[in-house]
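Chapter review: from sequence to fold.
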Amino acid sequence: MSEVRVALLQLRTPAGQAAAFAQVEPLVRQAVADGAGFIATPEATNILERDRTKLFAALKPAQTDPCVQGLIALAAELKVWILIGSALVLREDGGAANRSMLIDPAGQVTATYDKIHMFDVDLPTGERARESEAYTAGAEAVVAQTPFGMLGLSICYDIRFPYLYRALAKAGAEILTIPAAFTRPTGEAHWEILLRARAIETGAFVLAPAQGGRHEDGRGTWGRSMIVGPWGEVLAAAADDEPGVIAATLDLAASAKARAAIPALANERAFTGPVAAS
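The token string follows.
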């Protein structure tokens, strides 16, 4: 399959899994009605709650999470591929994971990826984030096979670590997924630039579904979900923070064409150093 119609869902996820599924379900159905064969949702599709006590009281294993299980059932009902950009779920060891989940049209989870890079920062706005205090970081990069190409999975803050995307591309990924819940200050300054840079560096499509707007827990997210082509061109973009759907048809031959024109992956060379000056 050389072409696929993809749809990204922009959400404003509430602080509960059942309410989250109630928001996402009609958008999935809208995307399928418009011809999408692959649908991707943002980071934290199933719940957003900044109060850690409330969050951990609400978290469930993926097997019993109403939003995760609802999306699995929808994939099977509608015969469509769905990437849950990430779900915040309990791990088997009792910890928490920020986890991407790829679901096939039979309703089977064919790949998962736990976010590697944790967003630990004190922003100039006074906002403090410590993801490492809430989630167990992943340690394995993931490329997943689909009928329409190889997907390289990542989540939000991973976008600032180019070596991850280079590794995914060198492992065969033609489509990079970057679901996110970007803060407004960093989103306004860096979101589009980073997405287009990752596409250009790797010669891959970039799919970036985002959270957007003011959430129940008080946080603000940037929105502006985006689909970027392998030459860095914006194929589709949300104009604001509002929940909705954006879509584009991907021609996978464009990835090979971009990589042939700029063979940066093939031209890579090993080097030593640098050594810090004394």
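Two observations follow directly from the output. The chain has one domain: 3-261. The CA atoms of residues 15 and 48 lie 5 Å apart.
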